[in-house]
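ugh ok fine here u go
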Amino acid sequence: MQGLGAAIRAVVKEYLVLIAQLEHQYLIGALTLQKCWFYLQPSLRTFHALSSLVLDIQATNQERVRNGRSSSSGGQLLSLLHRRWTTLAGDHHITQLYQFLIQKASVPYFEILDRWVRDGFLEDPYNEFLVQENKSIDREKFGDMYWNKRYQLVVEQCPSFLLGTQEKILTSGKYLTVVRGCGKAIPRDETSNPISFSENNREYIEAIEKAHLVNSKLLLDLLFGEFKLMQRLSSIKHFFLFDQGDFFVHFIDTALSE
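structure:
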């Protein structure tokens, strides 16, 4: 919500600059009614689109409040903006406006996304991201279900343009959290650009998929390399006689008769 508010303020500031320029033209006697109408027409369309957007958000929030839910934020607002941006593709001026709004409004969201999939840190003070952390989960109580309970998807906070990647986003950060929990440092590729929204969705989707691949390899190398997971499993298998199937069955049959 803060990102969208900042984007709208930027549009209003641009309009105020236009008013100041028109006032200057008026004071020097160079502004006619025809010129004034010509310069203000784009602004009229802009503010009509902004009014429609704000009323849409307001109506959506009122409906959510009546249903006992919180107001729209984060991924929900980005989905609304993206829907308007794609459905109004025939109007170049309004399309550019919504593209500007979604690019600015998505900055905080993608900053959280980039930090999560590349560093494994979840910094979401307003609960606007598609991954939610439950810090009250007790590792000893939940055992092997700990990581599934600690970080969970919030489906309604997944923007429409990220649908299909939400599971990879969730697990990418989880992998790094597990690695860090083992006391290992997380290497970061400083040469790659931060993940951000772009008109070509393949750019940020490919960045997410690449981060998922790198993070999963990092965890697998740790488990099968340093922690020697296969060797440990083999030892357990040998201890419980699972690697000697015929002998184990014979032993059970013999013990049963005793």
